[in-house]
Design the sequence.
């Protein structure tokens, strides 16, 4: 967890909101892959956390507590909306050819993430973006650390395969290889 | 799909497939490019809004008082005096 100082949700909720909003938003967006839904769910996360702020027990950092609320909300949202199966078709749009290589690589990554289940996406985002250990992710997701490890491995394998096959689409896609391999 | 997890042994990349390290960097780079349209940093801070609103209210009240006094209108104008004494 990258908190400079662990804030008390009961007395320092406003500061906690300012400190954690962006990373909670990004973690949730990594699960739902929809910017508008991610913003709504982030707001809902902080509303629920505010109502429960006096019940917070410092067994985990407040950032992990917020992520747990947010990711559970995101997974519930996808389950409720039954969006998981239609996400690939709905979210992926062909990249604008005027975009630079980095932007194109982001599109490739986003497309590869749509191939994952929400639980795999949560593990990937918490591991690679938030930099959480397997034990911390296990605490956030409420699953054993071994399950987290296998989810990360499975997600990495699927994404590598997806990105690799994306590079095989033909000559018009070959320019993106520089963005993927050159970093 | 069952995939064995091998700890501390990043998978090397092939010609077209990114390595695990590359993939991690790509994911991080992608996620860090996601910014919300609203949030704690969007718009002026609340204290600035309240201060500006309070200052505007003071200016409006003061202007209304000065204008009312100058034009002698409303309660700020001369009041009729009851000259009849009982």
Sequence:
């Amino acid at each position: 967890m990258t908190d400079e100082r662990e804030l008390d949700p009961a007395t320092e909720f406003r500061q906690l909101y300012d400190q954690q909003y962006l990373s909670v938003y990004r973690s949730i967006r990594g699960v739902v892959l929809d910017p508008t839904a991610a913003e709504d769910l982030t707001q809902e996360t902080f509303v629920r956390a505010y109502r429960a702020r006096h019940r917070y027990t410092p067994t985990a950092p407040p950032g992990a507590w917020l992520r747990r609320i947010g990711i559970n909300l995101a997974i519930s949202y996808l389950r409720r909306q039954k969006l998981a199966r239609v996400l690939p078709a709905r979210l992926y749009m062909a990249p604008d050819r005027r975009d630079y290589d980095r932007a194109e690589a982001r599109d490739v990554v986003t497309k590869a993430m749509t191939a994952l289940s929400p639980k795999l996406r949560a593990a990937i985002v918490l591991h690679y973006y938030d930099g959480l250990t397997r034990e911390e992710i296990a605490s956030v997701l409420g699953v054993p650390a071994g399950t987290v490890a296998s989810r990360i491995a499975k997600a990495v394998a699927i994404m590598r395969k997806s990105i690799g096959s994306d590079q095989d689409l033909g000559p018009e896609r070959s320019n993106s290889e520089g963005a993927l391999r050159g970093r | 799909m069952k995939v064995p997890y091998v700890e501390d042994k990043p998978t090397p990349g092939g010609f077209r497939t990114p390595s695990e390290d590359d993939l991690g960097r790509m994911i991080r780079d992608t996620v860090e490019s996601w910014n919300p349209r609203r949030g704690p940093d969007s718009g002026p801070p609340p204290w600035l809004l309240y201060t500006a609103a309070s200052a505007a209210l003071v200016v409006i009240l003061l202007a209304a008082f000065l204008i009312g006094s100058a034009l002698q209108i409303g309660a700020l104008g001369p009041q009729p005096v009851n000259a009849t004494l009982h």
Remarks:
- The first helix of chain B runs from residue 20 to 32.
